[in-house]
Design brief:
Elements: H1 7-33, H2 38-59, H3 67-70, E1 79-80, E2 95-96, H4 98-126, H5 133-189
Antiparallel strand pairs: 1-2
Helix pairs in contact: 1-2
């Protein structure tokens, strides 16, 4: 392990950064208030800050995460990644293809856009005014009630019509019988009719 990654060095680096910043701020305060030694404090503080920025540029940034310890090679585009649950990297781990991941992320983005449109539709439905709906439902219920009553009346009328047809058929049959009787009577009385002779 290099000295730059030790806890002592990190503490020392934070101490220098904090000290330099505080001297610069105090120098600015002294300068604003025109107190003595303001120029000297600003010079010392800015020199310390300049050294710190130069030093930080040389040592490079320290990552704030340690995923690469659990998944070695995580920061490489085409890498063999296997979690270190068994203590060693599995050499037979399938390499991750960056293009496949990009395609999968693109598919996820499409799905998220679809979900966003669906949520927009739900929001539009939420804004619909349903205040008159109960009156419309009551009106429709009244209509269906009247329609059912009319259908019942029609059914009763149909029964009455069937009975009427039956009575008319009986009457027709009776009239035919009467016509036959009347015809027979006329034939029997024909010899006695004085006008026919």
């Amino acid at each position: 392990m290099s000295f730059v990654k030790t806890k002592g060095f990190k503490y020392f680096k934070n101490l220098i950064i904090g000290f330099g910043a505080s001297v610069v701020l105090m120098g600015a305060l002294f300068k604003l208030e025109s107190w003595p030694y303001a120029s000297e404090m600003l010079t010392v503080g800015l020199s310390v800050e300049a050294f710190i920025f130069l030093f930080l540029g040389v040592i490079g940034p320290e990552p704030d995460y340690y995923w690469d310890k659990l998944y070695p090679g995580l920061n490489e585009y085409h890498s063999n990644i296997a979690p270190l649950t068994a203590g060693e990297v599995d050499e037979a781990a399938k390499p991750i293809n960056g293009e496949v991941i990009e395609n999968q992320l693109g598919g996820m983005l499409t799905e998220l856009q679809g979900m966003s449109k669906s949520l927009s539709s739900l929001k539009a439905l939420q804004e619909v005014d349903f205040s008159g709906t109960s009156e419309q439902i009551k009106s429709m219920n009244n209509f269906y009630t009247k329609l059912n009553e009319a259908m019942a009346d029609l059914s009763d009328s149909l029964e009455d019509t069937k009975a009427y047809r039956s009575h008319i058929a009986d009457l027709n049959s009776n009239i035919s019988g009467l016509n036959n009787v009347y015809g027979g009577m006329l034939n029997a009385m024909a010899p006695f009719n004085p006008q026919q002779g």
